[in-house]
Structures are given as structure tokens and as C-alpha cells.
């Protein structure tokens, strides 16, 4: 099956089936401390923040999604327009299909839609073992004038999908060499199973300065892959991995405590502005969402904007009303 057909299948499954992990994201174990006397004006209460040297409206990131070339174009168009209008950053889905088809130039449209916001380029880390080197990574970044490059780590997904790229050996020394003088920050990102503290330490030693934990509690790629057509493995075999991984809140808490200098992005099952406030108080610089934006992105930029505006409102309210966070 071609990569674009596989991506198209993924989108169909994410739209039509329940692909949410039955694990929670872990934020329900924490409570914001309510402040009934905020001594501030809600109308002028600031929630903007800096991200990759830009001032953005709120600590919210559109997380990576890809859709196979035809639908990717429309999804990216709507996401980029909404991100630009709201002054929020936008992470692209894997650019591999575009590289393989020699169509990286098509992605210039992103910068026409979103000339001023931070855009993050994206490719699977494992591709460093399958012909991708520093030059290809630079091309991927240049194609969208990206402010950062995401290297996503998806070992479970690659194992479960037919003909996945499963050789993850020796990636850290390659990443270390690339990090040494790469022109933009590199973000190590999972896709819904999270990073342990041990893995975060290995990344820090390799020179990685940004981690998007993409923890468990949101989209389960094991569920997506179990439902995908043409699987070699039966659902009975893969079912035990549907709830695999480390919940997002646990990743953020453990990594921030041990590695306070690491820039953290919280994602994986984040679904409202209260969770965004919690993640930020626990050490995340910004929070990302993918699945809740998929359906709106197929409809219009207005539909994407509405979801993001509701999140901004919820975050602003939660930030206005809370002074701290405690474990329940
Ligand atoms: C349709 C779809 C496509 C995705 N494609 C990518 C991708 O190409 N690269 C990547 O790093 N993550 C990809 N992801 C993973 C998300 O960026 C995110 O880490 C994960 O879905 C957890 O966040 P969520 O619970 O908010 O969906 C994709 C997610 C979805 C729903």
C-alpha cells in the first residue's frame, strides 16, 4: 500500500471510529487552585506567550496531522489560515509523502496562507535509518521556512503497520550529530504514547532542546492501526497495545521535575482549556491538539477557528481564576 493511501485510510478511520485511548491523559489527578479574588480585569487579562521567538496569542499549538497528498492540501490550508488569523503556531504532519513524490515545493502554499506564525516541519525520526540525512532535513525545513523541525518517534505504530520501518537502532548518535549545528531547534515528539524520563534524558544528552511528549490519553495509533485495512496482525494480537503508553500529565510532571531546562510541549488527549492551564502550571511551555481539529479542518478554516477560540476562552478563564495546581 502506498504511503498516501495509508494516510488517507488513517484519516477515514480517525473520522469514523472511536480511536481515543481508554487511558486518561492524567490531568484529572490534578486540581487548579481557585482564586475568588483575582484582583485583575478579565477583559485585559494577558494570555499571550513567546514560542520560538514569536509572540503568540495563547499557549496553544495545532499538532501535526497529515492526510496523504490530496486531502493534506485542504487540511493544511484550513489549519494554516486559522492559525494565522488567531496568531497561533502550526505543526505540519509528516512531510515524507511530499519528499518521496518530489513535491516539497507544493508546501510553499502553507507560507502564503500563514506568513507570520511559527510553522514546525515534521518527519519520522526513524527515516534517519532509511536514507534521510541532514541535507534532507534541511530541505524539509526550507520548504516551509519552518521555525523548528519535529522528529517524531512512533515505534509502536511502525511495528503494527504493514511494512512499517522498524529499525530504530542507532538513531541517537545521528540526532546528536544533526543537532550540533542545525539552523532551527529540533523537537523530539511521540505520537500518542509519551516519553519516559529516561528517554527525555537521552534526548537532552543528544542536544535536543524541545520535547513534545504526545502522551497517552488521546488518539491511540494502536487503535487506528488495528482498524486499518490490509493488516498482517489480527485485532486480537494488537488489542493489548491500544492503551499502551505513559499518560501526558505523567510525562510532563516527571520530565519537568528532573529536567527543568527542557522546553516541553504537552500533547496527547488535551481537550480543553482547563487542561491547558494545568499543563502550563506543571511546566509545559505550550499545549498541542490534533484529533479535535481534524473534522473542522476538512470543513473550513472558520470551523477550525471556532474550536480554537473556545479553547482560548477556556484557557483565559482558567488562567484568570487559578493561582496554582495541586495533586488530588
Ligand atoms: C489524522 C492524524 C494524523 C497524524 N499524523 C501525524 C504525523 O504525520 N506526524 C506526527 O508527528 N504526528 C501525527 N499525528 C499525531 C498527533 O500529532 C498527536 O501527537 C496525537 O494524535 C495525540 O494528540 P491528540 O490526542 O490531540 O490527537 C497525527 C494524528 C492524527 C489524528
Any key phrases for this structure?
single chain, two-stranded antiparallel ribbon, 8-stranded parallel sheet, 12 strands, TIM Barrel, binds flavin mononucleotide, globular, alpha/beta, 328 residues
Major sheet, described briefly? 8 strands, parallel
Distinct compounds present: flavin mononucleotide
Task: Report the end-to-end length measured between terminal Cα atoms.
Answer: 47 Å
Q: What would you give as the CATH superfamily?
A: Aldolase class I
Q: Helicity level, as a percent range?
A: 40-55%
Tell me the β content: 5-15%
Query: How much is the average pLDDT?
Result: 94
Strand order, largest beta sheet? 4-11-10-9-8-7-6-5
Number of separate structural domains: 1
Derived from helix and strand composition plus strand pairing, the structural class reads alpha/beta
Give the low-pLDDT segments: none
The number of E-state strands comes to 12
Level-1 CATH class name: Alpha Beta
The dominant shape is globular
CATH topology type: TIM Barrel
Radius of gyration over alpha carbons?
Answer: 19 Å
Order of helices and strands: HEEEEHEHHEHEHHEHEHHHEHEHHE
CATH architecture: Alpha-Beta Barrel
How would you characterize this protein structure?
Helices cover about 40% and strands about 15% of the residues. With about 325 residues, the chain is of the alpha/beta class. The chain has one domain (about 5-25, about 50-315): Aldolase class I (TIM Barrel, Alpha-Beta Barrel). Helix 12 links the parallel strand 10 (about 265) and strand 11 (about 285-290). The longest helix has 21 residues, at about 300-320. Bound molecules: flavin mononucleotide.
Amino acid at each position: 500500500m502506498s504511503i498516501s493511501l495509508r494516510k488517507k485510510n488513517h484519516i477515514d478511520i480517525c473520522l469514523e471510529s472511536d480511536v481515543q485511548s481508554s487511558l486518561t491523559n492524567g490531568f484529572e489527578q490534578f486540581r487548579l487552585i481557585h482564586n475568588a479574588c483575582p484582583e485583575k480585569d478579565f477583559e485585559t487579562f494577558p494570555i499571550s506567550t513567546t514560542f520560538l521567538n514569536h509572540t503568540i496569542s495563547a499557549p496553544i499549538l495545532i499538532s501535526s496531522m497529515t492526510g496523504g497528498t490530496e486531502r493534506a492540501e485542504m487540511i493544511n490550508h484550513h489549519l494554516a489560515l486559522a492559525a494565522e488569523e488567531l496568531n497561533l503556531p502550526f505543526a505540519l504532519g509528516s512531510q515524507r509523502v511530499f519528499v518521496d513524490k518530489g513535491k516539497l515545493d507544493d508546501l510553499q502554499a502553507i507560507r502564503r496562507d500563514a506568513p507570520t506564525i511559527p510553522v514546525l516541519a515534521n518527519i519520522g525520526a526513524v527515516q534517519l535509518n532509511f536514507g534521510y540525512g541532514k541535507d534532507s532535513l534541511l530541505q524539509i525545513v526550507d520548504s516551509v521556512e519552518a521555525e523548528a523541525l519535529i522528529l517524531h518517534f512512533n515505534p509502536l505504530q511502525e511495528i503494527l503497520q504493514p511494512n512499517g520501518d522498524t529499525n530504530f537502532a542507532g538513531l541517537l548518535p545521528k540526532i546528536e550529530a544533526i543537532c550540533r549545528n542545525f539552523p532551527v531547534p529540533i523537537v523530539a515528539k511521540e505520537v500518542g504514547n509519551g516519553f519516559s524520563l529516561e528517554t527525555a534524558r537521552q534526548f537532552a544528552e543528544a542536544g535536543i532542546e524541545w520535547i513534545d511528549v504526545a502522551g497517552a490519553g488521546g488518539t491511540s495509533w494502536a487503535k487506528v492501526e488495528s482498524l486499518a485495512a490490509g493488516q498482517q496482525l489480527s485485532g486480537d494480537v494488537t488489542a493489548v497495545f491500544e492503551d499502551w503508553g505513559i499518560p501526558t500529565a505523567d510525562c510532563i510532571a516527571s520530565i519537568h521535575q528532573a529536567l527543568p531546562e527542557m522546553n516541553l510541549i504537552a500533547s496527547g488527549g488535551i481537550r480543553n482549556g482547563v487542561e491547558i492551564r494545568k499543563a502550563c502550571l506543571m511546566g509545559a511551555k505550550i499545549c498541542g491538539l490534533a484529533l479535535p481539529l481534524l473534522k473542522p479542518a476538512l470543513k473550513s478554516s472558520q470551523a477550525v477557528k471556532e474550536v480554537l477560540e473556545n479553547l482560548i476562552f477556556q484557557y483565559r478563564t482558567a488562567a484568570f481564576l487559578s493561582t496554582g495546581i495541586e495533586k488530588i
